[in-house]
Task: inverse folding
């Protein structure tokens, strides 16, 4: 029975180790110390404790296995072959409990087939901390101890016995087995040598056991970087960066797995490990730990460049049993899955809240008992619940019955998220003549949200409209943290904000953009304030970190996607803040990065700035434009005319908030934001812009601007009201007290009045119903090979005939934003005008030439002369007359694709099959011409031409066609759009990575009391 | 003492600082908001780049298609289909053509109109013919007018009958006819379109809507006609009204009525279509002279209370006892006006609290010969209107009187009446016409001088100011007969107003 103590710069722990060794109840027969070139006096300590003769000095670059081997070599040869000789290996930082050796040896008597015994490793400082009770390894090379992080020893793992491997600290090995296997693999200088050795012990037909009764206290100094390690081994050379430890560990892990794999599986294992390494590197990159990512790759490279070592290791294993003999000791599938998830999470984030970008106070601490009860007791949560009840009750008509939500600005949702993604990603949109108008990013966000809801796009829309008001209140409540301290005032702030006319009107008129903006606005304002460094004095806003502007850019991008006009306010804010010397870099990132994140849409907006004033959905003109005075009183205009005084009390309160001179800076800043919003709202009431979805110039909805105006005023009033009672309560009685009382009453009454009016008024055009505008057979035909279009006409105001051309069964979300520009409709304008005049010209033929097979008059009232006019139009045949609309079919075969012969005749092309004919034919696709269109017969691209004038086609993409019959493949090349979207995705990933919390590169060292003085902590005492 | 003062002064200083900052801020904010609001309120809307859609412009019609449903209705007599193009209208400088053709063979015209102002006729004697279509396009589309005129002096169908050829439509009301013994009311449905049509016929009687499953959902193949007879649908019902609805496609409908007492003819004529149900209905063309004047009313949707007002040459009055006439929903109500009219030519104004349809049957008795004609609810016209196929030539001079009644229902009107004789189908020299002033609320009878050289002629009434109702009566008096026909006029198809059209995606909102 011999003991080998290996030391390398372990002077801190070595005295304790030697004294603990001396106190063993069963003393070893002989002890030898091996010092591997320590520079801190470890050799002296060893000599003092063991005697100079029993200490061997080897060079600093000696591997751990070689050092042990050197120690064993100095021991006397085994005298009696019949007596089992045991070796006990100790590190300079592993102190065995006094009964450790005795208990190990007692077990060795009981288990004859076992060649290796290991002790239960506990923490050095925290002696209840479990470090290891035997361990195993994952297929990825990850060590599996089967312990929770920071798990304390209460004997719960004392039933363990058979194990794949035990640590080398305190390892009791049969000497004959050690000699037969050649000790630790020299290719593993520091890590995983114990795993490799134990694995080989198993393959040699012996067992490995852990003896939980035997305890060793282990500092794991090398692994945690507590040792001034050098070179390849624990010796010399000064401090080593932890990343090298990690790299060495990974390389050793890969080496062990490859060395122990059967020959036939070696290629598969290698590929699997290589892919796993790449995947882990990617995750480390996402977690912004580039050092670790490169460690992973370099570890793999190290294995590949040292194939000789691997070969040597595999040669040593020759003649041993298959490595699968330890399969029963490897982790089970369930454990593997759990570890994989934990590993991914661990790589992406540190798990430390302090580095999170979101204020940690904003979220309940779930780790404490009674989570549910505590959650619902939070004012933020019950405020949101009350708002949910109010919103659901006020909009109750939306939540009964079947069908989907639509009306006002909201078109019906398509069936699935896939349709939304398709609309977002494709380069050609088929509404009317078709357009290349890029889909706005709000559509991608809706698609993303729908995908999260398992692709249910209608559910996504429902949830947004149901939850917008409570979510706006919730986010306002959370965002006021630290700015307003009084909980009642914060509740008032969030409720009043959530019930602003912009929000309630947006709900009734189907304006999804404003609703989404209402939820996102408060956190965006808070983040921008942090970026600018506003409010770090006087409020509890934390100063910006390096990540804050990136995170702000992400949130602002989402906000701007839904309410583009708010970018202007953010930009003005950034300019002003930068001008007075605030954090220019942060502000530039926060305000300009969204332009890149929202590519290619932001490019489109730059070309067509009127889009800045638009918002997602159909332009709704009901109640627009409002007077500037109403906009100043927070009313954006809608179907219901609110009394002007409804929010006047709030405006007054916000104005008088400036009297709180102790908070005048923040209220002035809020008023600055309010004024910019007001100017934009007033501009929106006066400027008529042309949007894709509607030809006539229209006023735009100042909802988002009045929303921000309202938010600023609510905040100003809340800031002033915060602590008002204490402040004026202490003052002598004067005009302030009654004034404050009146004002407070006015302010408190405002949300109640808002709720009252909300219930008193009809909700708005948004409703739930059957979204089918066209009869089923028409919709089916438009989806069929002829792709027949339907012209929908409605008598507009002032005798104007408004119309649109539908294809594919009707409009869905996203169609309004991607509608063709006004100029594309000119040809159809003339045809519709002529058709509805009853002139009886060739307009019906012209419609047929555009692929229009049906004419629908929506809102067909009895006695409308339009009905009689269309009835008397030759070539039109009335199909049905319902209260919802009258439908006519157009004579002849209509098709989206046709072949025009030189003699003027035309025939439809269905499914791309062109019959043989005469020379000089033209293949015409009734879509707006665009260079992106391509027609190919086999590999031959057809030359582009123009449609003959007499074809009456104003929308025509024409190709020259030969006389022979062919199958033509017509497609739109949207590679450019795809390139833009890849660029956008790339930029989004970059910015999200930059905004994510950085992964802590320090491994959690559970046993770290921040002081490495063992004697003080008690074990040695 | 000083200390105390100092302590008191401090908050006051703060307060004054606060007041000043508040004052400055308030001025800035109120000023800023005020300037923004005032500037915003006073600024004119800044309109975006797209040019405004053109407001409604007028344009000559491009095609006109008139269907003459029943050219061969009276087997014993002669039927003439006359087509004329009224010259001097906008859009006639364009190239164009007009033809008369059978619905069965549109590509082989029977007659042609060659230039604006030209005429064409098709005479059919003693035989039944398929309906004819008068179709014009280009320069001949504006001002195209057609009529079918029947003359039967022989048998029980004896009488003069005429009707205008009509534009196909989807809703037709006829407010006369019946199925008493000796009365035959024929309904001719014509589908002149290349597509099939589906037609519902609703027949109303004094007891309400008559359930007739056999005339629901009549499917008419393309270019076909279908004939229905009241005496088979509603035998024995005296007062009938008919509503033809094209559920799909469109049709032209003509209703003819003939009465006899045994073998004694009591009159034959076409029943003109009545205008769609409305709260105010004008029925022009009530003839002067003796005989029955029976107004027929129907309120299709709800029980109505109807009041009448009679406009004559001397003024308007409410006939005694003819206010608050109850018209139950769906029931045909006849009102005898002969006593109230006292033999004056008149226009009847029907006012109702519910939309009603109105038509009028009038009979003429000379010695023991009875003849009938019909009129119906008609539109007030501000544009030109014309009737063709009016008898002319030396043969009828002296025996035939053509009277046009022009009513100015809403304020004084001024009209020009022009006669356009048809001479060998050639464009007739443009005639200046005569102008008449119609006092407000009066009916003016204008007797047209039958042109001696033309076999038939066209009359054109062009309102120069105000809106008018026009109807005519042709009265052929011979020693042994008194043949009468006439009908209210419809606007001439000349110009249409092109409404501005604008794309708006909201139209596609379900």
Result:
């Amino acid at each position: 029975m011999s003991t080998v103590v290996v030391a390398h710069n372990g002077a801190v722990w070595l005295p304790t180790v030697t004294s603990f060794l001396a106190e063993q109840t069963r003393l070893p027969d002989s002890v030898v110390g091996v010092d591997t070139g320590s520079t801190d006096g470890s050799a002296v300590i060893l000599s003092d404790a063991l005697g100079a003769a029993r200490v061997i000095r080897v060079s600093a670059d000696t591997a751990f296995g070689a050092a042990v081997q050197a120690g064993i070599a100095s021991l006397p040869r085994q005298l009696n072959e019949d007596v089992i000789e045991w070796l006990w290996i100790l590190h300079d930082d592993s102190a065995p409990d006094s009964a450790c050796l005795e208990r190990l040896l007692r077990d060795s008597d009981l288990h004859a087939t076992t060649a290796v015994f290991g002790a239960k490793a506990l923490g050095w400082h925290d002696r209840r901390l479990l470090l290891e009770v035997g361990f195993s390894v994952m297929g990825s090379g990850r060590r599996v101890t089967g312990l929770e992080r920071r798990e304390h020893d209460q004997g719960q793992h004392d039933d363990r016995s058979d194990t794949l491997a035990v640590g080398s600290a305190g390892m009791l090995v049969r000497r004959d087995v050690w000699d037969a296997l050649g000790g630790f693999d020299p290719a593993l200088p520091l890590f995983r040598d114990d795993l490799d050795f134990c694995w080989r012990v198993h393959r040699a037909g012996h067992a490995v056991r852990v003896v939980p009764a035997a305890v060793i206290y282990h500092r794991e100094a090398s692994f945690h970087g507590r040792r001034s390690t050098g070179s390849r081994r624990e010796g010399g050379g000064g401090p080593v960066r932890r990343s090298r430890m990690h790299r060495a560990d990974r390389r050793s892990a890969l080496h062990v797995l490859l060395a122990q794999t059967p020959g036939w599986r070696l290629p598969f294992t290698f590929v699997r490990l290589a892919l796993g390494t790449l995947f882990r590197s990617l995750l480390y990159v996402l977690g912004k730990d580039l050092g670790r990512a490169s460690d992973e790759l370099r570890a793999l490279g190290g294995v590949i460049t040292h194939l000789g070592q691997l070969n040597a290791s595999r040669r040593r294993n020759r003649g041993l049993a298959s490595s699968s003999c330890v399969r029963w000791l490897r982790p089970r599938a369930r454990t593997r899955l759990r570890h994989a998830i934990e590993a991914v999470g661990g790589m992406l984030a540190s798990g430390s809240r302090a580095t999170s970008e979101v204020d940690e106070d904003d979220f309940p601490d779930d780790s404490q008992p009674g989570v549910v009860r505590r959650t619902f007791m939070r004012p933020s949560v019950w405020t949101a619940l009350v708002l949910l009840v109010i919103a659901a009750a006020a909009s109750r008509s939306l939540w009964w019955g079947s069908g989907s939500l639509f009306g006002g600005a909201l078109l019906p949702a398509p069936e699935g998220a896939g349709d939304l993604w398709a609309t977002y990603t494709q380069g050609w949109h088929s509404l009317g003549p078709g357009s290349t108008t890029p889909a706005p990013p709000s559509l991608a966000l809706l698609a993303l949200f729908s995908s999260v809801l398992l692709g249910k796009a209608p559910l996504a829309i429902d949830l947004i409209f149901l939850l917008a008001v409570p979510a706006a209140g919730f986010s306002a409540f959370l965002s006021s943290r630290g700015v307003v301290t009084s909980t009642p005032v914060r509740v008032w702030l969030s409720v009043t904000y959530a019930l602003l006319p912009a929000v309630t009107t947006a709900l009734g008129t189907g304006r999804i953009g404003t609703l989404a903006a209402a939820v996102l606005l408060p956190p965006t304002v808070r983040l921008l304030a942090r970026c600018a460094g506003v409010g770090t004095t006087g409020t509890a806003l934390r100063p910006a970190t390096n990540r804050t502007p990136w995170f702000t850019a992400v949130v602002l991008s989402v906000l701007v996607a839904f309410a583009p006009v708010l970018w202007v306010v953010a930009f003005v804010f950034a300019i002003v803040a930068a001008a007075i010397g605030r954090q220019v870099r942060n502000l530039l990132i926060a305000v300009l990065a969204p332009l890149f994140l929202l590519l290619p849409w932001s490019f489109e907006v730059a070309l067509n700035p009127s889009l800045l004033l638009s918002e997602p959905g159909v332009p709704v003109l009901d109640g627009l434009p409002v007077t500037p005075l109403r906009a100043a009183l927070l009313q954006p205009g809608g179907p219901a005319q609110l009394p002007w005084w409804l929010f006047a009390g709030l405006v007054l309160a916000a104005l008088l908030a400036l009297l709180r001179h102790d908070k005048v800076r923040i209220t002035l800043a809020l008023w600055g934001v309010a004024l910019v919003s007001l100017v934009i709202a007033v501009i929106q009431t006066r400027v008529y812009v042309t949007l894709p979805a509607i030809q006539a110039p229209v006023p735009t909805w100042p909802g988002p601007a009045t929303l921000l105006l309202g938010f600023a005023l609510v905040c100003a009033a809340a800031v002033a009201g915060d602590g008002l009672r204490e402040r004026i309560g202490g003052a002598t009685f004067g005009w302030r007290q009654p004034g404050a009382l009146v004002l407070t009453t006015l302010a408190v009454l405002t949300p109640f009045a808002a709720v009252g009016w909300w219930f008193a008024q009809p909700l708005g055009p948004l409703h739930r119903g059957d979204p089918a505008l066209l009869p089923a057979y028409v919709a089916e035909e438009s989806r069929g090979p002829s792709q027949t279009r339907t012209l929908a006409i409605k008598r507009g105001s002032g005798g104007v005939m408004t119309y649109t051309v539908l294809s594919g069964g009707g409009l869905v979300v996203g169609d309004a934003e991607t509608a063709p520009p006004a100029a594309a409709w000119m040809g159809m304008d003339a045809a519709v005008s002529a058709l509805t005049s009853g002139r009886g010209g060739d307009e019906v033929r012209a419609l047929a030439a555009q692929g229009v097979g049906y004419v629908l008059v929506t809102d067909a009232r009895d006695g409308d002369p339009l009905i009689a006019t269309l009835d008397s139009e030759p070539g039109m045949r009335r199909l049905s007359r319902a209260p919802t609309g009258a439908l006519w079919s157009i004579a002849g075969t209509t098709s989206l694709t046709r072949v025009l012969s030189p003699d003027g005749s035309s025939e439809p092309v269905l499914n791309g099959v062109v019959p043989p004919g005469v020379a000089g034919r033209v293949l015409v696709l009734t879509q707006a011409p665009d260079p992106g269109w391509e027609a190919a017969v086999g590999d031959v691209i057809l030359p582009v031409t123009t449609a003959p004038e007499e074809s009456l086609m104003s929308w025509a993409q024409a190709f020259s066609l030969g006389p022979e019959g062919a199958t033509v493949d017509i497609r739109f090349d949207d590679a450019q759009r795809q390139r833009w979207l890849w660029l956008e995705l790339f930029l989004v990933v970059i910015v999200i990575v930059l905004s994510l919390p950085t992964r802590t590169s320090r491994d959690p060292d559970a046993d770290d009391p921040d002081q490495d003085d063992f004697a003080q902590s008690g074990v040695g005492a | 003492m000083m200390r105390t003062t100092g302590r008191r002064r401090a908050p006051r200083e703060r307060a004054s600082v606060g007041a000043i900052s508040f004052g400055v801020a308030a001025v800035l904010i109120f000023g800023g908001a005020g300037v923004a609001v005032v500037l915003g309120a006073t600024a004119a809307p800044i309109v975006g780049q797209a040019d405004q859609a053109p407001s409604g412009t007028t344009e000559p019609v491009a095609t006109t298609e008139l269907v003459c449903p029943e050219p061969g209705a009276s087997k014993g007599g002669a039927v003439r289909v006359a087509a004329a193009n009224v010259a001097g209208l906008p859009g006639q400088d364009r190239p164009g053509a007009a033809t008369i053709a059978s619905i069965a063979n549109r590509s082989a015209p029977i007659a042609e109109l060659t230039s604006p102002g030209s005429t064409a006729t098709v005479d059919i004697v003693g035989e039944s013919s398929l309906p004819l279509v008068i179709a014009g396009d280009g320069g001949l589309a504006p001002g195209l007018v057609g009529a079918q005129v029947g003359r039967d002096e022989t048998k029980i169908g004896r009488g003069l009958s005429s009707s205008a050829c009509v534009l196909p439509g989807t809703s037709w009301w006829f407010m006369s006819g019946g199925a008493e013994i000796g009365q035959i009311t024929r309904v001719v449905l014509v589908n002149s379109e290349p597509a099939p049509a589906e037609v519902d016929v609703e027949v109303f009687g004094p007891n309400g809507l008559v359930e007739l499953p056999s005339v629901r959902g009549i499917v008419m193949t393309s270019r076909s006609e279908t004939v229905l007879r009241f005496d088979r649908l509603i035998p024995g019902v005296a007062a009938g009204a008919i509503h033809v609805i094209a559920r799909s496609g469109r049709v032209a409908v003509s209703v003819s009525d003939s009465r006899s007492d045994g073998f004694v003819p009591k009159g034959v004529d076409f029943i003109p279509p009545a205008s769609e149900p409305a709260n105010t209905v004008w029925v022009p063309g009530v003839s002067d002279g003796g005989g029955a004047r029976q107004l027929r009313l129907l309120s299709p949707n709800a029980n109505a209370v109807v009041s009448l007002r009679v406009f004559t040459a001397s003024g308007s009055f409410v006939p005694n006892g003819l206010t608050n006439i109850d018209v139950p929903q769906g029931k045909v109500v006849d009102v005898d006006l002969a006593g109230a009219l006292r033999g004056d030519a008149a226009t009847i104004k029907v006012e109702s609290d519910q939309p009603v349809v109105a038509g009028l049957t009038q009979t003429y008795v000379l010695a023991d010969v009875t003849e009938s004609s019909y009129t119906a609810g008609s539109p007030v016209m501000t544009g030109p209107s014309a009737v063709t196929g009016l008898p002319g030539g030396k043969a009828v001079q002296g025996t035939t009187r053509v009277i046009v009644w022009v009513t100015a229902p809403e304020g004084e009107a001024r009209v020009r009446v022009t006669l356009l004789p048809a001479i060998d189908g050639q464009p007739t020299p443009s005639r200046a016409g005569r102008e008449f002033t119609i006092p407000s609320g009066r009916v003016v009878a204008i007797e047209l001088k039958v042109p001696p050289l033309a076999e038939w002629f066209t009359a054109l009434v062009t309102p120069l100011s105000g809106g008018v109702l026009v109807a005519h009566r042709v009265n052929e008096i011979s020693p042994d007969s008194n043949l009468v026909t006439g009908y209210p006029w419809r606007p001439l198809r000349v110009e249409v107003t092109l409404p501005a059209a604008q794309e708006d995606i909201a139209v596609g909102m379900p």
